[in-house]
Amino acid sequence: MVVVTAESVPERAGAKLVLARLAQVRDWVERLVVIWVDGGYIGQDLMQWVMDSYRWIFQAVLRNDKVKGFVPIAQRWKVERTFGWFNWCRRLSKDYEILPQTSEAFIYVANIRLMLRRLA
């Protein structure tokens, strides 16, 4: 699910927008139980709201501060890999779009392209 917002929208408020849109197509993701998030989404209030509203679990995937240097973090690399794939699309490598809906559309197009390449 993709929701593009202004930079001034806090991460937790943006998460509520994404989850509200995801709940609209809940039958497509009926097996969804756990959602991996980064440190910006940690907070008892948000986690409790997600559990009460949608019965999903937010699980924070955090790095270990004791480890020095680059160490891949379980599950987080999937998100970073996806952002890397988006950079292969010229329209997504820079912020050219004026409307957030246009950015969302190009992200969906980029994902469709990736899926079609895997099917071919």
Residue share in helix: 40-55%
SS summary, helix count? 5
Distance between the termini: 24 Å
- What is the residue-averaged pLDDT? 85
Strand residues, percent: 5-15%
Strand neighbour order, sheet with most strands: 1-2
Biggest β-sheet: count, sense, barrel?
2 strands, parallel
- Uncertain residue segments: none
Indicate how many domains the architecture comprises: 2
Structural class: mainly alpha
Count of DSSP E strands?
2
The Rg value, from CA coordinates, equals 16 Å
SSE sequence, one letter per element: HEHEHHH
Features:
mainly alpha, two-stranded parallel ribbon, 50% helix, 120 residues, single chain
Written account of the structure:
The chain is mostly helical and 120 residues long. It contains five helices and two strands, in the order H-E-H-E-H-H-H. It has helices at 11-24, 44-54, 76-86, 90-93, 100-119; strands at residues 34-37, 57-60. The longest helix has 20 residues, at 100-119.
Q: How are the SSEs ordered, and which strands pair?
A:
Elements: H1 11-24, E1 34-37, H2 44-54, E2 57-60, H3 76-86, H4 90-93, H5 100-119
Parallel strand pairs: 1-2
Summarize the structure.
It is built from 5 helices and 2 strands, in the order H-E-H-E-H-H-H. By secondary structure, it is mainly alpha-helical.
